[in-house]
Design brief:
This protein has 294 residues and is α/β, with parallel strands linked by helices. It contains 10 helices and 5 strands.
């Protein structure tokens, strides 16, 4: 009888383990914090049986780097750029992710032409990021930085996007060391060129850094096929209607602000989130609305 009870207990534990839902945390800078491309990724993930009920939290932070560098007079001299390593421990301890998706690089070059010392700081910061995440038992997927100033014709090796291209080339090389990488830059470049061929006035970004609605859609559409391959998901990724995506983004914003407040950060000027309990209640209601928009 005792043996039967033990076997039953083991079986129940196995079932519980299989039933555990994924916990996905997304890290990055202001482009990711914005939430538009992330909401499209979340909408597509939730259309799958694997991630339909997953916890998905956008914990990106504007101005943030992985390198720990900051240019003199950043933000008018009001504050230096925050670094993910100042808050990573708290984020991982409190959110307990099974998967972390991270996109850094746009700020890490400090908007200067390629500089070997800056590049070295970026590499060390990214290696530390992946190492810490994996040490906590979470899977880590790195997304290469988006394009800088793709609306302008590149004419000089001093163009900042060349530094980001070097960052991305190094990230891609780390797949030989087992890193999981999504390189969005080739598909993003192609999508922008296609849009420009159709409309010569197409503009990806008004400030050469932060994309508009079309740019965020392009980033998501560049990332999703590669994410599907890494996660071994069936069918093609489908984010659904814009209304569905926007509803997920509203839910995501409640959770983002609440979790950023809860886990702490050094970036001033962000809205204070409501309590996690309140945020989850509001987000759950919005997710239920979004699910009906399939």
């Amino acid at each position: 009888m005792r043996r039967i009870v033990v076997l039953l207990s083991i079986c129940l534990s196995c079932v519980a383990g299989r039933a555990e839902q994924p916990r996905v945390v997304i890290l990055g800078d202001s482009i990711t914090y914005d939430g538009r491309w992330i909401a499209r990724v979340e909408s597509a993930l939730r259309s799958t049986s694997t991630y339909a009920n997953a916890t998905i939290i956008n914990l990106a932070l504007p101005s943030e780097t992985a390198s720990g560098l900051s240019e003199p007079g950043h933000a008018g001299g009001t504050f230096p750029r925050p670094c993910i390593h100042d808050r990573l421990g708290a984020v991982l301890a409190q959110t307990k992710p099974t998967l972390v998706i991270a996109c850094y690089g746009m700020n890490d070059g400090i908007y200067k032409p390629f500089d070997p010392e800056i590049f070295s700081a970026y590499k060390k910061g990214m290696e530390k990021l992946v190492s810490v995440i994996q040490a906590k038992g979470a899977r880590c997927i790195i997304v290469t930085p988006p394009l800088h100033a793709p609306d302008k014709t590149k004419t000089s090796p001093q163009d900042y996007d060349n530094a980001l291209e070097a960052f991305s080339g190094w990230i891609n090389s780390k797949t030989a060391m087992g890193w999981e990488v999504i390189d969005i830059r080739p598909a993003l470049r192609e999508a922008i060129q296609t849009a420009r061929n159709q409309n010569k006035n197409f503009q990806y970004s008004t400030d050469q850094v932060h994309p508009g609605d079309a740019g965020h859609r392009m980033i998501a559409e560049a990332a999703l096929p590669e994410l599907w391959k890494l996660l071994k998901l069936n069918d093609k990724p489908d984010a659904g209607s814009d209304a569905r995506v926007q509803t997920y983004q509203k839910a995501q914003t409640y959770l983002r602000d609440a979790w950023l407040t809860q886990t702490g950060h050094k970036r001033p000027g962000l809205p204070k989130g409501i309590s996690l309990k309140e945020a989850e209640i509001k987000a759950a209601g919005l997710r239920a609305e979004a699910a009906k928009l399939r």
